[in-house]
Amino acid sequence: MTKIKYLTIIVCLSNLMSLVAQTRMESSLKENDGSQLWLPTINVSKMKEKTPQISYQGKLSKTISIAIFELQNAWRGQPIILEKTRGKKTDGFTISSSERQIQIVSTTDVGLLYGTYHLLRIQNTGIVDKNCSITETPFYELRILNHWDNLDGTIERGYAGKSLWNWSDLPDTLSPHYKEYARANASIGINGTVLNNVNASPEILSDNYLKKVKALANIFRPYGIRVYLSVNFASPIKLSGLHTADPLNKEVIQWWKKKVDQIYDLIPDFGGFLVKANSEGQPGPCDYGRTHAEGANMLAKILQPYHGIVMWRAFVYHATNDDRAKQAYLEFQPLDGQFHKNVLVQIKNGPIDFQPREPYNPLFSAMPNSQLMVEFQITQEYLGFSNHLVYLAPLWKEFFASVPFHTVKAIAGVANIGSDKNWCGHHFAQANWYAFGRITWNPSLSPEKIADEWLKQTFTNEPQFVTSVKNIMMQSHEAAVNYMMPLGLHHIFAGEHHYGPEPWYNMLNVRQDWLPVYYHKADSAGIGFNRSSTGSNATAHYPDSLCQLYGNIKTCPEKYLLWFHHVPWTYRMKNNRTLWDELCNSYDKGVQKVRFFQQVWDKMEPHVDTRRFKDVQTKLKIQSRDAVWWKDACLLYFQTFSRLPIPYELERPI
Ligand code: GCW
């Protein structure tokens, strides 16, 4: 048992003057390779010089010690009182400040840690108010990252190096990155992590790996982060040689029960399982004639006594003739109300697959009797990998413009984190990790506000820099949609790698629903996927008002036009251009935007350290070339059907 210590920590500080401005100056042009993220550098020698007075009365847990350490390292202001009060346990906190002191109050240790990070955030973004009173409560209880990390160190759709988890060294050697990762997550409220790929190796549940998982869980725990695992539904067969993985089979149930007991023995606060079943070749309950609900409930009942959960993915589609956009709905909607209470159905934001832009997945408005969670993709599988600067908060906000916050119980994000020095491959990709955390904490935060916070903490508070670069970030998603897939086009990526364009990709022996031609359907009459009542009728899965809106070519928002309709090349758009001219203009607009980003960034040189300035400049060059590649490839290919000229005033294809 941990020895309970009651102490009051009073560390005296001789100089209490506000050093906010000074801290900013120090951080702005210092060499920075991005490894520091948005958090204050830990500087033990400076801590001694400037340690503020911090008091806390109560049981000193590891979590509270971290909070005190962070404050001692970076807070430059009034004395601080950390106070734990009685009441309903939440992750929320209150910060109140007066001339003389600041008080952070919460009912939990982790709430005090979150309060600490919040205080440092407001200090670093330059808005510390002497008489403030802030109350923060996270909107979602579960704020979770999904790592698609394989046990061999590779990451599926990862573009920032190898996996952070050094499986071969664990549990004996613990990389310092584990703590830094936990610290970064805690600073933005992320409280869960699924360590391994949803295409799960059964090995993760072996005795050997569970010990490694335990070592990571021990490091993350004080930061308020619980560990979860993706599991392979056929694990009983693959690990222990059972002849079946049928969820209703007694032996199978017994196998999972024993496994779960073993896990909780090692990791008492283990979070639960994430399951990709009967999707893209993964095993699942349907292999035995059972439903997704039967599969999920079997695991859920076993996890329930431990308060564990099951996150069951609804990302399913098969090689049938029916529209891929309809398949998850057809399979999952009839199961509404059948899932056990500790099952969350995890649904990707759109009905196809993390495309640059998609309408929302209609399952979100069709399963009122189930607990749903949304899966966003932070890693930029379809958005230029770690080469393109694309700020994703506007994309996620677009989802929430259609799906009210309360519809989902939790948010998962497919992580973009790897072993690269700068964590995410592109300095600006860190903004997406940051924004994901902030949105799971408070989905009403605006993308502008989040970008503002991130820029100030990561680069500098210099107003000219913040305004100009925020402007780039805010326009970056729309720019990428324009130079890749404007007006509702989707999935016209090169086969396999999902980086560049290959709208012409068409092979006889490849599944139809993996071919771009299946999605854009360009022919001499027009372009686009008819999902209205005269086509696949996917529009019928939306509530009536939206079904009518999307189903009618005249009322369908133009950003989704080619998602829902096959449109004649000479169709008149709202601005009176023909569809073809509008398509050309959109691609061109995307390219010009990236050129504009380059110009703005070049002017930022005085405000940014050389290393990061050059890194971003180089990435923008790649992005700019790629944008031209996309424009030229798509327009020249589609022109073979439209047989119309590219408007005079636009840049010619190379
Ligand atoms: O988008 C597709 C990806 C796969 C991924 C799958 C999924 C983990 O291309 O790499 O597999 O989605 O989400 O399961």
UniProtKB/TrEMBL annotation:
Keyword Coiled coil: no
Source organism of the structure: Bacteroides difficilis
Assigned EC number: 3.2.1.131
Family stated for the protein in its record: Belongs to the glycosyl hydrolase 67 family.
Domain Glycosyl hydrolase family 67 catalytic: 129-403
Glycosyl hydrolase family 67 C-terminal domain: residues covered: 424-648
Subunit structure: Homodimer.
Keyword NADP assigned: no
Descriptive protein name: Xylan alpha-1,2-glucuronidase
Record's catalysed reaction(s): Hydrolysis of (1->2)-alpha-D-(4-O-methyl)glucuronosyl links in the main chain of hardwood xylans
UniProt KW keywords: Carbohydrate metabolism, Glycosidase, Hydrolase, Polysaccharide degradation, Signal, Xylan degradation
Range of residues in the leader sequence: 1-23
Domain Alpha glucuronidase N-terminal: 46-119
